[in-house]
């Protein structure tokens, strides 16, 4: 089972959108669980799952004893794609994690019982560098990082690097440009600059487009509502790059 965290210190950069599209792409070939760790539950909403976590986040992540993970999992309309729903109770999770021993290993403990049920777990993380973010990074084999090509984006990339490199075993970062608008000079410059100069940045560019916004009104992944759009095709490339980075076949070949 490979764990991919979609993470940024910055809010509103396309993390939940990316988590849903990656999960849908991954589920074409693999058994996938999308774990929505955000009290806003955007990814849960986009996949038309009820934002209600049985027992609440604290009993699942912060609690003592064995987490009853499989009871909290919900099916989606798509084959091989399940969701561990987001829920209001994630708002209080930080306090529970603060009180818990080994708080940054809590997610791994929750996922443990599912390791033979899923090939891929996608984590949709709220923004920030909280204990939850640390736990996400700790549990992840790969961190997928959306970067909006604004003048501050180089700074957010460095902030994510700093958070991740503080980990004893830092996961690899796979960065891509999100919400890119080629009509803007700053965005065009970033599209040319980032892949050429920043080792974590791929040349994958998800454009800022109404097609992505429609995901919210139609509650569907991009690959369902606009499979031929550039955004859907770039999402598909992003999944291919993510799987390439974590797949066991590749790892063996590398050694
Ligand atoms: N490529 C895009 N083009 C246009 N709109 C987009 C694009 N990507 C995301 N959006 C929109 O931007 C908003 C924020 O996206 P999203 O919720 O995925 O970001 P986020 O990083 O998860 O936010 P948060 O930090 O609040 O969790 C949403 O309304 C979404 O529909
Ligand atoms: Mg989000």
UniProtKB/TrEMBL annotation:
Domain AAA: 1-164
Pfam families named in the record: AAA_31 (PF13614)
InterPro entries from the UniProt entry: AAA_dom, DNA_Partitioning_ATPase, P-loop_NTPase
PANTHER family, alphabetized: P-LOOP CONTAINING NUCLEOSIDE TRIPHOSPHATE HYDROLASE, PARA FAMILY PROTEIN CT_582
The name this protein goes by in its record: Cellulose biosynthesis protein BcsQ
The species this protein was found in: Microbacterium halimionae
Lineage, opening ranks: Bacteria, Bacillati, Actinomycetota, Actinomycetes, Micrococcales
